[in-house]
Design brief:
The chain is α/β, with parallel strands linked by helices. A seven-stranded mixed sheet has the order 6-5-4-7-8-10-9. It has a three-stranded antiparallel sheet with strand order 1-3-2. α1 packs across α6 and α6 packs antiparallel against α9. The protein starts with a helix and ends in a 6-residue tail after the last strand. The relative contact order is 0.09.
Amino acid sequence: MADSKRAVADIFNSAIAAAAIATAWETGFLDELREQKKVDVNKFSIQNDLDSGSMQGLVTALATVDVVKQDQGTARAGTLLDEAYRAKSLFHWLALGSGGLFSRMQYVLRNENRTGKFYQRDPVALSYACKDINREHFDPAFWQAMEGLDYKFHSIVDLGSGSGERLMQVLERYPGTVGLGVDIASASLKVAAAEAKKRGFRDRLSFVVGDVRALDYRDEFANVDLLTCFMMGHDFWPRESCVSSLQRLVKTFPKARRFFLGDTTRILLNTDNTPSKYAVNEDNVPIFTLGFEFGHALMGVYIPTIEEWEGVFAEGGWRCVKTHLIKSQSLSVLFELEPVTINAP
């Protein structure tokens, strides 16, 4: 009985600690602790205009899961600080970006409520988290794919561009190129446009609001020869819609020669119905997997397995020339695609 009580208490406390990790990152506390090795909590609160009592509570929440050690108002690195820091954006995605979804689970589950815009997430917080998720988990495979391009690209479009960070990094590495970000969340694009202007990309980078699942040809798409899309490919699904979206992209970007499509895949929920050799059971669930798959189930968004992705490319008008498996936070993948009919440069 004592052990079960302790275990259930740990579940409760971990729910608070998850949000505390996300908040500690956004407020700069995690970075301060890693750099300085110890932090005077009251002094940090004053310097950053934070409520001191609330910050003490946040530090205590981190201490319950051994992310920090605290002693008389001073916080030091706990055993799990480094690993929690590596996963910080996943906690941010869960607790802050998707908090409005999970906190209304009892409402979202009911079929009578699942009409219209029946859930809420924070698009700015999601962009903040995804910027780091991309850097930490997808970028190594992405830059490897970029280095392997067998042509010199001139114009890149990022579908679901969020913070715009990927585009800005590409433009920094490839002088003379131009970029365009497309995203359905206008609030995220405002933040991205301000950051692009701040970093000197005003003449090379622009953003437009659009649903990437149903884009039509525009003049600004005429010379785009490289497409990227990360962490939103699942929004193309279910299968029939995905095939249609992929076919539409071939027509919308007639000069695109390569399409880098990266996303997290399904390995836990309903894998018996759509078998995958990568499936895991409830005793071996990686970080992010449960939150990602369950969250999208609540939203009514289908998450495909790798095998399901592999089964749509040919019908969608694309050929997969290389697959990069990414196993750091769950099971993600980067597909290098080219149109079945490649246009001459």
